[in-house]
Amino acid sequence: MAKEARLLTTQKSELLPIAQNAGFDPAEFEWVFDDSFEEKRVSTIGAGRPRTVTDILTVSALLHKPSGFYCKFGPNTLVISPGEKQLIQRIYPRDRQLGFREWLTYLRREVRSPDLWNTFRNDAINRLSHTQRANAALAQANKRTAASELQEANADLSRQPPDLTGAVQHSIAALECVAREHCGDHATFGKLLERYPDLFTRPLDIGIDKIWGFASEMGRHLREGRTPKEEEAELLVGLATACCTYLARKIESGDAHRA
Fold first, then answer.
1. Do residues 91 and 138 both lie within one domain?
2. 52 pLDDT tier (thresholds 50, 70, 90)
3. How far is CA 149 from CA 10, 122, 144, 228, in A?
4. Helix, strand, coil shares, percent, the chain, to 5
5. Do 124 and 246 belong to one domain?
6. Which of 60, 99, 122, 135 has the fewest CB atoms inside 10 Å of its own CB, making it the most exposed?
7. How far apart are CA 102 and CA 81, in angstroms?
8. 73 - beta bridge partners?
9. Within a domain: 257
10. How many other CB atoms sit within 10 Å of the CB of residue 7?
11. What is the pLDDT of residues 91-121, one digit of tens each?
12. How many angstroms from the chain centroid is the CA of residue 49?
């Protein structure tokens, strides 16, 4: 049967201002208990040689509810999650409050650091969702080359490190491909905007013309030291995707120019 070793109410209360001073809201925490906590000690009972025994204890544990991390308070040791360099760690502080401060340091590090893997995954999902919608519209309009270029543009963004110039170049190629088919004219996209002023609804055509000029500078007319930033490349790929979808649906509806 586990031995009782839970903290007194006054001992718990001593820890609250430490959590507040570390920048945590006390409402994020909940006191629970663990009735299978193991702690080793040296037994000197009897005339025999000292030996190590393992006590099974019921101890107090402080749970950080948003993350599921915790700190378990044994009489002489603390079991904490997260630890300094591992998920679960047993520490041997000089006193309970020092050990608690150490745990809060590791807890703050983990809960306030960005999850880069999750961020990367969410960005990839968002890009995939936009690309899938564009590809569906391009497929219905039988524009597989443009769809392929958009896929390559998004693949370039997903590389580590991302190929930003490649992403811009593929997005430009996709948009130019769809616009040429829409107009029945093999001029550059910039020329198509001049020749077919109703290619995009006014005054959006003016903004798209400016975007095209910027994209061409970044993706085609390359200059030393003038490469797109990651956020610029993502914006251009997203805009190209939206414009391709718009033109593909115009083609599908039969609203196409012919020279």
1. no
2. confident
3. 66, 22, 9, 18
4. 55, 15, 30
5. yes
6. 122
7. 11
8. 60, 78
9. no
10. 18
11. 999 999 999 999 999 999 999 887 766 665 5
12. 57
The mean per-residue pLDDT over the stretch 134-159 comes to: 74
Q: Is residue 259 part of a domain?
A: no
Residue 103 makes CB contacts below 8 A (sequence gap 6+) with 71, 78, 80, 91
Residue 56 in any domain: the answer is: yes
Strands 78-81 and 89-91: antiparallel
Can you tell me the distance from the alpha carbon of 186 to that of 157, in angstroms, rounded to the nearest whole number? 28
- CA dist., res. 111 & res. 81, Å (int): 12
Give the residue from 259, 243, 256 showing the smallest Cα distance to 146.
243
Tokens representing residue 82 in the block: 């997260």
Provide CB contacts within 8 A for 47, sequence distance 6+. Answer: none
Q: How confident is the model at residue 125 (pLDDT cuts 50, 70, 90)?
A: very low
**Residue 215 has what pLDDT?**
74
The one-letter code for the residue type at 139 is A
What integer pLDDT is reported at residue 51 of this predicted model?
Answer: 82
Residue 257, classified by CB atoms within 10 Å of its CB into exposed (0-12), middle (13-18) or buried (19+), is: middle
Residue 114, number of CB atoms within 10 A of its CB: 7
In DSSP terms, 134 is beta-bridged to: none
pTM above 0.85, yes or no: no
Find the length of the chain: 259
Q: Give Cα separations from 68 to 13, 79, 81, 89, 110 (angstroms).
A: 21, 14, 9, 15, 12
Total domains, the chain: 2
